[in-house]
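Troubleshooting: if your tokenizer reports a length mismatch, compare your output against this known-good record of 354 residues.
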Amino acid sequence: MTRADRIAALKAAAQERVLVLDGSWGVMIQREDLSEEDFRGERFAGHNHPQKGNNDLLILTRPDIIADLHDRYYAAGADISETNTFSSTSIGQADYGLESAVRDLNFEGARIAREVADRWTEKEPHKPRFVAGSIGPTNRTLSISPDVNDPGYRALTFDEVYAAYREQARALHEGGVDIFLVETIFDTLNAKAAIKAILDLQDEGYEPLPLWISGTITDRSGRTLSGQTAEAFWHSVRHAKPFAIGLNCALGADLMRPYIAELSRIADTLVAAFPNAGLPNAMGEYDEQPHETGHFIEEWAKSGLVNIVGGCCGTTPEHIACVAREVAGVAPRVVPDRPVALRLSGLEPFEVGA
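Known-good structure output:
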């Protein structure tokens, strides 16, 4: 299949069924109990920064682990698997002194995922598999000062964040992803930099790809870290005409539900959600069992709230298998035809005439 064929197949599949994303990568990589040497490999054996915990680097040093995880999630029933590139920007990799490896991380991460997805599509042509290029939030924020004594201070500029995302998006595109997934958004201004970087690729002659935007409601306040409600967040990014809008991380499915319901009511595009396996316990581990996650998400699907579902922190291939079984045969959410109106946002949404 060409990429155009895959995108057409993705859009057709989204009209027919609730699509399933993969689950957590961090929890699965932790189970491998890898050493510093595993992370470094031969290529970075002499590098002068510690690398243990730099999960993205395994794309280059342990590609066998990364390919196996894609394979396990597709086998569990996922239609879409993310590249292992959540922190693969020059900003994210600066902590490890690996800014120079960013292009290779993204290109190879996409290439590995593409190869595994294509094998599954060849084996099960009735259920094509897709690759989402994972673009994380970075560990710096444009909206909040890191210095409590200087509220106006910013550690970096919009242009610097934009350039970092542009480099990542270009390499993911060239590596063969089908979708851009801007995820775990806690700062909408960072997300806007990523969105602009992705849309600007078209000016360089790159084929436009579907864009999936996924924010994070950080706690029971119902707001992102930069202060927006779910509806205000949607108003802030809807100009990008995303293929899907949704939420992930921070909350389990039970606590995330009201915010997914709100997006389902207002968004005139697909709605996606991949919650954590509940909230972490005192040891930072996730206790929610696969059947519990599957039960919560089944209710979402049967209530007509979602088009794409999956798992975030703490979820495993077993969780995704349960989710896939529970949503099988359930009709996807019907995208509402909302009236045209002037809709603005700050921290709160504002609709003229509402």
